[in-house]
């Protein structure tokens, strides 16, 4: 289960995928691969242009253990890609589905947040941008990632705990994932 698919969209959030890609492969030996709704160039919120060679149709054949949906400006618009079938079928086959910030909207629209504990930018954010979202009772206003039944969610301000949860779901030992999370969190402990 050491394969992680990262989905980037137009306007993707620069800070939400970096820890997964930058540490997951080089330091933890995970197989990290990028996908986009349409293969080709995507541009981040910060202006970075990235060439993503693989579209959604190739994710299933690659068979990742974790699919991570990265947030960005597109998720709050009518141009947001519809990933329902991909995410639901991946989860039903035993895979892990993860979303951070706007990426949680893709999970909510697919109905994946209706029956699991989860978080996002805030509870109203999910109601405003994901019609049909029915998971209010299980929403947790947590500042860190929440993982429940192979679904990982995080607010946009929690890329370190999100990365640690993705790493652990992809097969990294709990102690190593926790050490990674604590190392990065220590920088923000104040003092």
Structural class: alpha/beta
Largest beta-sheet characterization: 6 strands, mixed
For this structure, what is the CATH homologous superfamily?
A: Class I glutamine amidotransferase (GATase) domain
Distance between the termini: 39 Å
What would your notes on this structure say?
The structure is a single chain. The model has no long low-confidence stretch (mean pLDDT 95). A six-stranded mixed beta sheet has the order 2-1-5-6-8-7, sandwiched between helices. Strands 3-4 form a two-stranded antiparallel ribbon. It is globular. With 191 residues, the chain is of the alpha/beta class. The protein has one domain (3-186): Class I glutamine amidotransferase (GATase) domain (Rossmann fold, 3-Layer(aba) Sandwich). Helix content is 32%, strand content 18%. The protein has helices spanning 14-24, 59-62, 84-92, 103-109, 123-129, 159-169, 174-186, and strands spanning 3-7, 31-35, 40-43, 49-52, 66-69, 96-100, 146-148, 151-154. The protein is built from seven helices and eight strands, in the order E-H-E-E-E-H-E-H-E-H-H-E-E-H-H.
């Amino acid at each position: 289960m050491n394969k992680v698919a990262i989905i980037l969209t137009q306007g993707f959030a620069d800070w939400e995928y970096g820890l997964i890609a930058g540490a997951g492969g080089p330091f933890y030996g995970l197989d990290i691969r990028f996908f986009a709704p349409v293969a080709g160039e995507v541009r981040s919120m910060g202006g970075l242009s990235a060439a993503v060679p693989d579209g959604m149709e190739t994710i299933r054949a690659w068979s990742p253990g974790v699919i991570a949906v990265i947030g960005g400006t597109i998720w709050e618009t009518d141009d947001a890609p519809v990933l329902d079938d991909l995410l639901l079928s991946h989860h039903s086959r035993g895979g892990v589905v993860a979303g951070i910030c706007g990426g949680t909207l893709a999970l909510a629209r697919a109905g994946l947040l209706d029956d699991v504990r989860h978080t996002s930018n805030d509870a109203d954010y999910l109601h405003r941008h994901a019609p049909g979202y029915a998971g209010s009772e299980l929403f947790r206003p947590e500042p860190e990632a929440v993982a429940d039944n192979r679904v990982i969610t995080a607010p946009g301000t929690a890329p370190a705990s999100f990365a640690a949860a993705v790493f652990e779901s992809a097969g990294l030992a709990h102690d190593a994932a926790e050490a990674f999370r604590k190392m990065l969190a220590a920088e923000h402990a104040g003092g």
